[in-house]
Amino acid sequence: MDNRRAWRAAIADGRQPDVPEPRAHPVPTFEGGTIFFAISSNRQRTGYEIASLFPQPAHDLTHR
User: Fold this and answer.
1) How many domains does the chain have?
2) Dihedral of CA 55/58/63/64: which sign?
3) CA–CA separation, 56 and 21 (whole Å)
4) Closest CA relative to residue 22, chosen from 35, 39, 36, 9
5) For residue 2, what is the DSSP state?
6) What pLDDT is stored for residue 60 in this prediction?
7) For residue 6, with 0-12 CB atoms within 10 Å meaning exposed, 13-18 middle and 19 or more buried, which class applies?
């Protein structure tokens, strides 16, 4: 996660990242998985919005 944050910060600042680019691995199905929704107040502080999503595939599928 630290590398991902550093990579995103460098890209946002227009700099060349000095950490490896984050990688993702395809999951054949999300059946049985869960998603954690991180909710925070919006910029205007008039309501709430989804700040991030954290998908977690079913455990037995992540090791195939």
Assistant:
1) 1
2) negative
3) 20
4) 9
5) H
6) 56
7) middle
Contact 26, 10 (CB under 8 A): no
* Residue-number span of the structural domain to which 43 is assigned: 2-61
Give the tokens for residue 64: 């195939």
User: Which residues lie below 8 Å from residue 34, measured CB to CB, with a gap of 6+?
Assistant: 55, 56
pTM of the entire predicted model: 0.46
* Predicted pLDDT at 62: 45
The residue written with tokens 């000095």 in the block is 18
The tokens of 34 are what?
A: 């869960």
Render each residue's pLDDT in the chain as its tens digit; 64 residues.
889 899 999 999 999 999 999 888 777 888 999 999 999 999 999 999 999 999 888 875 444 4
